[in-house]
Amino acid sequence: MKKSSTILVLAALCCTPAFAQANRISNFARDSLTQSSKEITAAAEQMPADKYGFKAPPDDITFGYLLLHVADINYPLCSLIGGVPAPKLPQLNETDAKDILIERMKSSFEFCTSTFANLDDGGMQQTLDLGGAKMSRAMTILTLTGTWTSHHELQEKYLQLNGISQSSPAN
Amino acid sequence: MKQRTIKALLRRPPGVQQLRRAAFGWSGLFAVGFAVAASLAALSARPAAADAMPTNTIMNAFVKVEPKQIDLVVRIPVDLLRGLPFPQKGRQFDLAASQPVMPLAVQLLSNGFVVLENNAPLSPTAARGRLSVDSDRSFEDYESAVAHVDNAPDLNEQILVDQADFDVHLTYPISSPTSLFKIQSQVAADLGGGTKLLVRYMPLGGGSRAFIIPGGSEPMPLNPSWYSAAASFIELGIGHILNGTDHLLFLFCLVIPFRRMRGLFSVITAFTLAHSVTLFASAFHLAPKGAWFPPFVETAIAASIVYMAIENLFGPNLRRRWLTAGMFGLVHGFGFADILAEKLQFAGSYLLLSLFSFNVGIELGQMLVLALVLPVLVLCRRFVPERALVVTLSTIGAVIASYWMIDRFLVLRQNDWPSIDDLISAARWPALVLLVGGAVGLIRKLLQRRLVRRAEEPSA
Q1: Comparing C-alpha atoms, which of B117, B338, B168, B110 is closest to residue B246?
Q2: Number of CB atoms found within 10 A of residue B58's CB
Q3: Can you list the residues of chain B whose pLDDT is less than 50?
Q4: Hey, CA dihedral for A41, A45, A51, A53, is it positive or negative?
Q5: Does any domain span residue B53?
Q6: Distance (Å, rounded) from C-alpha A6 to C-alpha A16?
Q7: pLDDT on residue B10
Q8: Domain carrying residue B26
Q9: Is the ipTM, as predicted for this complex, more than 0.85?
Q10: Is the peptide bond before A58 cis (omega within 30 degrees of 0)?
Q11: Same domain, B244 and B195
Q12: How far apart, in whole angstroms, are the C-alpha atoms of residue A34 and residue A154?
């Protein structure tokens, strides 16, 4: 009896789809957030303050605008993913001081960290409304991590164009 | 931050036409002036170019129905999955190091497609995935695609990051192969219609069909019943006319000067018949072809509004308005067909029924708008002198449509000029109207003469 039940349990484990592991997506979201916030913040700090107005044609935005853009995406998307309302913050300008822009970006990542803290894979299929685009929570996470990848690549490009090689962030 | 702005933040702002359509609600006929200002403001807004559009945005899929399950095999350009943490070696993916990421990628993508059976979402019970070079030909047929995805990849294969696809095979248990199935892609849905899911649907018993599903679409039926096809196309027709600000503005300019329903009847009938002719013709591929044609139709629709508004300003000939309505109805029919072309693929085996239903939907929408607009016009006439009302409303219409006309003409100008054959093909439509209009006019005159003669004949 014991043997057959062991076989049954093993068979059940074998048949459980490999993709359905608990909290794999949530853990990915948290890990990616930790890594990307370090990389993006490090790149932002590395860029000299007087280069925050630098534009890299044809990407017609300044480095300062890019940081604000990261924060502007983090707040609503992390709010949607975590089901937590985003804070109402005063509008900043891309020409504001480097410290202010970095602070806004850091606080957006902190907001994401707090909203992701209790995230689990239970509601990953739930459809979220991104103001017209409807996506599952899992796809929203993938979109958000994709923006971090793109924005960090753009930061690297801006740094390179200014003759600055990015040092890897301290863990 | 409002949710409406999230999508815009993620990607480039929408183009001119999208802005215009987004800015106007169907009920906004009286607020069109504000909408023009809003469009201009939006056009002058700073473009957020931080998120570059992926270059490869087409996903290829097979959906195969088996007695107990549905198999979905999809090839997705990696460019659409930039958030996936596949390790790289220079410009290539490190396939050996990528293997631990595969279960995550598959699990994420199992949440990227919605498959419905009789409107109930299905959950995949098995899933596999792998990276592939985009030159791989496995997706030419279903069997090779499945075999390719299900086989372990050669870890020494060289896959360049910017020339890679991710292939996934998902299996969903079903209760019956004859159920109504729908599919939706939520992969990179923030790009909206910028992405396309090419689906080859293979029902049990053969007779496969192909579909192109734009990103951001609602779940699309793969095997609709006749009544669900009819209902969805009626809904599409109503939605199209209610959201088609230019069609509504034309209709509005058409009816402004009319004081009685009797005169209006022939005008609306002519417009309806004419747009039905070109709508059906387009569905059967009889419309002129070429990249120039859609922007030409858009420009002509705007011009039709300008013409109608100016005619209202300089004293319209209401007795002949049915002819003008018929002529411009042809153009608007091509405009209606534009949206239909994309959706007709979802009609299943009910092409004619769906066309007819779409037309019914447009008529229902028109009737609804007229039922709202005409009483308002009657009410306005009580407080505003007739002529002043016609002049004011027509001027507003003319100004808005002129802006559209110029805007659309600029788009048209960017296209190659049509060939002589295209022009001949396009010219047959106005020729048809003139012919039909002339015949109707002739018959009318003959009937009138006969009636006059009868009246003049001395009574016996």
Answers
A1: B338
A2: 13
A3: 1-4, 12-50, 460
A4: positive
A5: no
A6: 15
A7: 66
A8: 17-44+230-456
A9: no
A10: yes
A11: no
A12: 19
The kind and range of the H/E element at B23 are helix B16-23
pLDDT at B4: 43
A-chain residue closest to B8, CA distance: A131
- How many structural domains does chain B have? 2
Mutate to test the interface with B, among A15, A16, A19 (most CBs of B within 10 A): A19
B425 and B288: one domain?
yes
**pTM for the structure as a whole:** 0.66
Whether B101 and B236 share a structural domain: no
A130, A137, A155, A156: which to substitute to probe chain B, counting the most B Cβ within 10 Å? Answer: A130
User: Tokens 């003139």 correspond to what residue?
Assistant: B434
Residues of B in contact with A61 (CB under 8 A): 48-50
Collect all residues with Cβ–Cβ distance below 8 Å to A9 and sequence separation of at least 6: none
Set of chain A residues whose Cβ sits within 8 Å of the Cβ of B84: 142, 145
Q: Where is pLDDT greater, at B217 or A36?
A: A36
> Which residues from A are below 8 Å from B4, CB to CB?
131-132
| Residues B162 and B129 placed together within one structural domain of the fold | yes
What does the block give as tokens for B443?
């018959």
Does B3 contact A72 at a Cβ distance shorter than 8 Å?
Answer: no
> Are A19 and B106 inside 8 Å of each other by CB?
yes
C-alpha B120: how far from its chain's center? 26
Q: Do B108 and A138 touch (CB under 8 A)?
A: yes
Closest residue on chain B to A137 (Cα):
B111
The verdict on a CB contact (< 8 Å) between B83 and A32 is yes
Looking at the fold, whether B173 and B251 belong to one and the same domain comes out as: no
